[in-house]
Records
---
Amino acid sequence: MCGICGQYNFKGNAPVKPGDIERMARALVHRGPDDEGYYVSGALGLGFRRLSIIDLEGGHQPMSDQQKSVWVVFNGEIYNFHELRHELEGLGHEFRTRSDTEVIIHGYKQWGFEVLNRLNGMFGLAIWDENQKQLILARDAAGIKLVYYRVESGTVLFGSELRAVLAVLPERPEVDMTALNLFLRYRYTPSPLTLYKGIRKLAPATMAVFKNGAWREERWYRIQPRLFPTPKSDTDMVEELLDVYKRALKRHLISDVPVGLLLSGGIDSGLLLGLMSLYGASWPTYTVGYGKSAYKDDELSDAAETARIFSARNVPVELTQDTFEQSLPNIVSVLEEPIAASSIVPMYFVCERACHDVKVALVGQGPDELWGGYTRHLGVHYGSYWRNIPDWLRRGVESGINRLPRNETLKRGLYSLNIEPRMQRYQNVFSIMPGGAVDSLFRENLLLQGAGDQICEFWRDLEPEMQGTDELGGFQVLEIRSSLPDELLMYADKLSMAHGLEVRVPYLDKEVVEYAQRLPASFKVRLGQRKWLHRRVCEKFLPPTILRRKKRGFAVDVVDQWFNGSLNSRMSSYLLDSSSLMFQFLKPQAVRCLLDDHRSGKNDNHKMLFSLIVFEEWLRMCQSTGCYAET
């Protein structure tokens, strides 16, 4: 795990200044405290910061072949590099290191762009082809790693984090109003946008190619999942998925440094620990919680019990409400882009503790999106039954529900399921508030018409992957390729690398994802039970007491409670103070109405209010560092 950056003047071929590349790399020193490297030649400059995980002595970057015709800077891990190396050696390629980076170099020389489809791993990378004067930037199919870039006047600047690009900008970028509108709808900014106008991030499974004075962005991974032709018995399917999980987990344990696990009290990370116990013992695990005194259903004791079952070491990390309030500004700064998920605070602190013992930690993200673990999956899966109810009956039920106080999730869900066009239906399921209500928060003439529908344009490129999928499968494509990488995986990368910790996601192994996409919805949601097949595998490792535990993630319920409490103190001042920076873009009275309705119990607006506070923290961070221009 590392940090990459660079510049290519692809139009005028003006020489790159080495000092600029050094400044970009210095902005990423937290991602790579072990080593640094540079390659500057004419119009191209590459920079690198390294966190050494595999081939500690021989993995220096930028790395090239012996002829210096292909150069690579690479952030991430390639889990099938041993198999690819063996294949390439059989084709006559000679290797000088044990590094997975060198496999990318020789793979590109052998297969060109197709090398990306052969990689099973997480990566944000840049490949420089000296002979063709071509630069390729690429992000892995699951979007676990990030690549930000800015193109202007024939120059591209890129980096693993925004701060690398911002380090050499001649002027401060403005806030992108379309991106802000999407952030307020979804609590994250979907690729390819960022809140900085003119700075983009590659969407998962896409690449940007710069050559002959021009550039293009395209999808390099175009899988079209097809359901398995002959269904097997449930018993066979459980055994088959278990074998897939075992292979993926074994690949993710490849490391030359210590490996641990971020353990919650739930079944997903619990299953990971059970699988890890097949390949080792006394694994170090780390759990964040709040103690029984603060929260009677706390994760710490649950996770400790899971660790005890598998003879693992468990390190608890206990947080307080004061910690939550005081740490939020720093965490928003680390994220660079605002993300209003309540789990960002516990994630930051569990990574901070884990990095004292290990350099690599596995995390149990992915099964909810792959196997249908959220309440919204029940609505999507059974939504056709609702749409087939006679109009008169459906209107009566809706009228009764709409009169209920709060219950915003249920109200939005019913509204969304009534929408016939597939993409628009999915769009509304994801949104935390109706689009018109979000638009009404903005000051006059700031927002372009249809800004909130821009996400459907971004999703259009995913339609081929959705062909042939059932209703739930189509929705999951958008989760796997959009919401999961741009929200959960993005903050996992930033918050872990802030502490020099590499987080790996075994459930998003290429083989696991492609297997799940080939199964019909009946293996994901069955008789109202979510993650049906995944849970059957969990039963082989976990006792009923764990399987019956309420889903909590990193105890986000208590963070939500703390936030509601904080609305009566410091945080409410952000929403009420007319001098708050957010009111350059938003109407103060509209925001106050959201707060009043929330406090009165009329509506549950805590998600939107938390989004606004995170946005305000981001604006204050930007102002203090000179990172954005006022409108």
---
Amino acid sequence: MDHTDMESWTGGSTLAASASIQEGDSINTVPSLTRHVAHQADEAQLDDAVWNVLLTSTCRDDFRTYLRQFQAGKYRLAAIERAITLDDNPNDDDAHYPDVISLLRSEASSGNPSAQIHIGKALSEGIGVDCDQGAGERWYRLAISQGETRAKINLSTSILAAQHTETKERIAEALQFAQEAADSGDQEGLIVLAIEKLRGNTVTCDIPGAVELLQAALDAGWGRAGLVLARIFMQDQLVGSNPAFADECARRGLAAGCAEAAFQLGIFAERNAMDATTMAVAKHWYELGAAALEVNSMRQLGLLYLRGEHVSKDGALGVMWLKRAAALGDVTAMRDLGITYYHGVDVVPNGTVAFAWFSRALAAGDKRSAENLGDCFKLGIGTSPDREAAIHHYELAAREGSVSAQRALGIALLMSEPPLRDPVRAARWLQLACLQRDGRAMAILGKMLEVGDGVPIDLGQAINWYRASAEADDAVGQESLGACYLRGTGVEFDPAWAAHWLGLATRNGRKHAPFLLGSMFHHGLGVERNLGEAAKWFRLAAQRGDPDAQLELGRILVAGGAEADFTEAEKWLSEALQAGLDDAQPLLDKLHDHLQPSDSSSRPPSAESKGAVIRQIRPQPGSEFAVEPSE
């Protein structure tokens, strides 16, 4: 790789003071910052030759591969535009990149050190060719023998990236390469050394020493040192948060030519943006970075335009910047494009395009996109519905720690038809999500414990999970807990608590909760019987699509005797019948025959019938799980 991955350590926990090399064995960690003129192969000439090979290609992957290979190539913008243009008309059978690999091999074999670095990188990272790290390392070493500093950086970072499986001797050699690169005036070598001091894995953890190194490098005009310092001083666990100093370092890094520092300044500004004026500052930094083809700035600028938060919303511009970032290999931008087309975020919804972007993101290593693909397979968006494929993709994301994917997997396993249905396995995944306080997972696990689906019946535990879910403001948990108080399941019958939780569930959009509130008024459960109030709640539930409410509202309207009520009664009873409630048919028959049914709903229920009603009131079977699992 050409650059050290900063995100791999800036988001981590406190760095441990452990080392695989003792302090006495470590390399010199105070490099000379004098810039040396080192031998440089004609990179531009090689870039021209590669571009000439690709010029007539109509294969989109050729240009994406070029962008991975030549991260400082002068044809990057042209390659981005070609990749985007060919996205809509791919011709992957016309791949020219094998010819590029042949060119690089030929040039490398003839002694071109720049070509040796590029073929080493291609083999080490599997860029346009099958990955072969051993062969890649041999080419790097050949370039090193010709004095190529870039080869030392690439080989050093490659070895250190696999430090947990490398020998002490190879790690020492990697650090030596980084030291030699730094001594020769290459800022990437110093960055590698500083980060290893911060991590404390290969050398003794020395945060002050790392900061001193980076500050000296920044003073000498090495822009990436400013970027790393900015990230360090935004983290409390490293040196104590100092946002003002972090901002200063990022500005100095940008002034010294580090385009990624513009992205960091944009992030700083966006975190504090309260209105259009302050958000404009963030937008300004992202635009600077995007103009320099800095991928993170492109992605963030695209999201700003799509969200329209304190800036003018512009779906076309948003998609353009996301596509440019995606062409540069940014998997988050690929996933964001999928979400944009899936939900129609200021663009026309397009399930096929969304599915393609999610698939591309997953193929590029973004496991989070597996959850989005699970949704596509479950709902048949952009592809044919495939429950088994949905479960497979949910599990990919669930194993990466996604709580929403763990919940979605549990739901899919619970709601599928045999042989895919597996409530025992569903319970395990839901329990994992519950441990992370996922409100919906807690409600579903509570229901499984209440009815004994995949787990033994345990009403006490069911109530505990319902309560935890309800207190986390999950509407399903609130509805289920309220229903338990109304039925006296696992708790004492308590209409006050029933009304409290059912009221919250209704406010949060559940359809069955207002039916249960209406039932309290219909049957006088803890309140005075009031058919008008019952009809109000039934109507709300019916409008939300609850079949029980549609049936009961139809009964009340028919019993009312007014001609106008018959029309509405017919509407609701027909919908209840269509939903599978056969009790609606006799009432519809009477309506159609212009018969008046006896007004049984106006007579107060007996104490015995009240008890029967309490026992019968329950959430619709499966309704707790009829929810979208993912955002």
---
Amino acid sequence: MDKNMFCFQCEQTIGCSGCTGNSGVCGKTADTAKLQDELTGALIGLARAVDSTTAVSKKTSQVIIEGLFTTVTNVNFDNASIESMIQKVRAEKERLAPDCSKCQSPCGKTDEYDMQQLWNADEDTRSLKSLILFGIRGMAAYAYHAAVLGHEDDEVNLFFCEALFKIGYEENTETLLSTVLKVGEINLKCMALLDKANTETYGTPEPTEVTLTVEKGPFIVVTGHDLKDLQLLLEQTSGKGINIYTHGEMLPAHAYPFLKKFPHLKGNFGTAWQNQQKEFDHLPAPILYTTNCLMPPKNSYADRVFTTEVVAFPGTVHIDEKKDFTPVIEKALALGGYTKDQHMTGINGGIQVTTGFSHGTVLSVADQVIEAVKNGDIKHFFLVGGCDGARVGRNYYTEFVKQSPADSIILTLACGKYRFNDLDLGTIGGLPRIMDMGQCNDAYSAIKVAIALAEAFECDVNELPLSMVLSWYEQKAVCILLTLLYLGIKNIHIGPTLPTFISPNVLNFLVENYGLSPISTPEEDIKKLLNKEQFILNRLEYEILNYCNQREYEWICRDKDGDIFVYEVKPKKTYDSWMDCGMDTYIMLFKDTFNFIKWGDEPLSVNKILDNCEVAEDE
């Protein structure tokens, strides 16, 4: 590709095809994008060196995780910092394979990878390898935060090397697809690792109301995801007359018992990351960025931006590994904060939000939830969450939640919740209708709750009255999606657009095997997810289904060849057909009937069709 740059890893990529000009939509320059490619190629070279060893050391793992995290969208815009990271990766490879650089007859086994080979590969190979790459970039963020709290996993660390190695290796689509799903499998372990790290360090989150009012006087805004940085800042500001406010994905910190004990952790400032240039404009306080999402700061507040960990931006003050936040504290005291309390609101006018509904909290009242479902008080659960962003159309999620039935529960997580988390939807049986489960990595909580409910009702997760309506922006959303696919969770709705890096063939596979679907309108999607479709049958189709229903054939579906079958027992999907566990309790119907049933669909209930059908009489 003869372009200034090429990047299509985020949802807002130009023209839904890729950023190729002098800068990307995120604000990074073409030079920064090229350095990120060089860093990725160097990481693949390091993984190749690891591949020839018996184990991956802690030092090597730290370098790989830090390097991958550096390339996540809106983390690092500083070319000097990225160049330093590249040299760190190369030094680690030299340590592992010192003879390679001196070899007179190089074999190329530990060479760095030219990312142009990936960007110029056939579209299916590029798509699958991009899913692997972007997935492990997101997973690296979770592994990084867990490591900060002293939690690591050898299997997770080794897989980073395996995945990087496969990106630089020629493999067929079937093998690559297997690795794509393995990213989801290992990310589940990684999210569990971070969940354990957070709860063992800070306690199990508790439902907590968080004010949006900013009190007068000096204050500091903390954004990103890193709870350890917030802890250290709270300790260093204790007794100094400085209040601390969370921003973006740091909101769930208010629910952790250990952090709640600091009285100067006052509330939450602002909303999601894409609004920071407006919300931070002329802010009389410093902002500490612990991770993404960092947008290029405006001149009106650039002098009060501080970064730490892998976050960096040219010209801003970076707090190094010593974690001395004195410059941030001094800036807060110098700016002085507001002269009187500022009564701020959320997007919908709410004056407070609630967080802290982790799996530990929700499952502690599992009996109450199960009873509400059995009694019919709760008829459906919607998981509406993920990344927020600036693309027009994301108000879909606000409207979806507003229009959700009064007998439904909204589970949410990540920064997409700011679209609706200040709404008051009331309660069901003492349970709030909106439950904020935490940061993006707390998708693990949603998974734990879904699995627990499936076990309680003795059914598959896909048979629960649970629908997932997700928003995505960057690479952490990718690894979460891959985890859901690995778990076999189907009929996920995703938006506001589908990822550009998914090729038509790969998308077709995901649609046929997992029912992945783009969002449409709140009205249509709610109707579809609540199974309130209206089926149009001709007289013959209606009589066929009545006949089948009377003989207890309960499920109907179409195989890959287009044939229609009805089954007594719900069948399982194979490569090109359906199986009913060898019971042979099925009937083959006319091929040219029931045209609304597709091979990519899940089996439909015969009763459901009959209960929601209109018979079009033959003319």
---
Amino acid sequence: MPFTKFTNLDFDQIKTSIKDYIRANSDFTDFDYEGSNFSILIDTLAYNTYITAFNSNMVVNESFLDSATLRENVVSLARNIGYVPKSRTCSQASITFSAETNTTTPTMTLQAGLVCVGASNNSSYVFSIPESITTTTTSGVATFGTESDPITVYQGTYLTKSFTVNGSLDQRFVLDNSYIDTSTIRVYVKGAADTGIGREYNKVDNILNVKSTSEIYLIQEIQDEKYELLFGDGVFGKKLENEAIITVSYIITDGIDGNGPSSFSWGGSIVNSVNQTLALTSTPTITTVSGAANGGNIESVDSIKYFAPRLYSSQYRAVTGRDYESIIQQIYPNTESVSVVGGEELDPPEFGTVLLTIKPKNGEFVSDFDKQKLLEDLKQYSLAGINQKILDLKLLYVELDSFVYYNPAKTSTVSDLKTRISDGLTSYASSKDINKFGGRFKYSKVLNVIDEIDTAITSNITRVKIRRNLKALVNTFAQYELCYGNEFHINPEGKNVKSTGFKILGESDTVYLTDIPNKNINGELDGSGMGVLSVVKTDLASNEEIVVVKSAGTVDYTKGEIILTTINITSTVKPNNIVEVQAFPESNDVIGLTDLYLNFDMTNTTINMVKDTITSGQQISGVGFKVTSSYTNGALTRG
């Protein structure tokens, strides 16, 4: 066996190589390997070599961040470059309530821990607070939270743990529970001169601006998704005293499963100004300001691999778009995707400005409170003279109108086949290609997904539509701009833009948006790529279109932009004051450019099952075969 060849890792290949090596020895040239017990020894050697090679390969793979697969190893490698994976996050609800007692006390304090219990999907979830809340009483009544300033409760169980510092170098401060939301961790250190539970220490992400007297701690994830606390050494951060008592409180949570509850029942504890438990005259009734939302699971291995090197390259400085992306993921763990646009890219330019758009993991909008906190946190990372603005999310929806041809001889239940197609498209809708800023809807992949569902499917004709939702300012004169970021297909006869119904001031009938491309004197497209937006309605008696506003705005087919000039919308057919406005893309591959978040909308996707009478043999000549157009219809309204 040539010792320079080490590429044979398969068991049979290794066994063959061992035999070749032994045959090279003249004593075993004509030996019968298969018919003797010597074959067992060769199998043992080959098996041992195979296992050793496999283990060596796995060990090497687990030594690098790109190739590691075990979470423990990925976390350890990310730790080497200063990255702490995001923990589970509690779902949060905003509530208010009043507590009444016959006892005289100037204040009431809602104790840290359990506050209430919420229910969702036949399951109960406990909600807690990480810190006590104190408020004043008036005539024996204390109000906790208001409509404009409610208290926030966190889904999960409140726990505490204590450590006594012994001064040894190998002492570790490990929190025994998994599923911790690290944002709820509170640490207090009681030294010899301290009273109560001691002084509160603050969590930091790095050692920038940390002094030898800074009362800080860091955290790191260890085995089994548990966390360890790290304290200062007297150089970076204050060193702990011997016999100091560390008290740690935190909340363990169900993460994303805790989203949903909006009705809560009381379960908390209230004490008076001298820390005595109060007997309330009645059980507090909890008023919900906002239901439980924004719970999330622990950061995935793929996410750690992606963001760890990027955060390291940013060196905690927000300079490039990638820097902002990684830093925002750290300071706002509820982030699903981030779009970063420099002001110099705008028209007109806004130099010195960075525009940020954030898609939360649950929901579509970042609250004003979270926006303000994000901007404050970003200041410590950004360069002087650079201002950040957080914009509301802009969703670009992709919808399909698919006609699927099938062979009835190969399927017994058409409805089941249709359901499987819907499930396949839903699975693609959750892929990494889309559902993000800069996402790309790949038309060829969708066609392949449909065709590969079952052998009964012979072909499909699938049309693509793109949609933006116009949020109407009801009973207000306003102008609207919708940017799609994709070129529109132009039908010279118009009706490229369609909308759902709405009503405007001075018109009692439901109206719609439509368009007519600009043409020259010969009635041909003038090449400007522009068109006129009109407001029209349908005469119910004659079914004819009546123009209500001939020039209500413009359409830029090349840029994919719709501008609606000043108009007063009084109501909309769709709920929540929404007017759905669709167009047809010039390319069936749709891209979510700049600040557009691409979303494959399955709720408005239609699947039409069509018998393939040629393949089934019903009409061999093709006479009577139902042909589906690949192009859009000329209907006035969306649908």
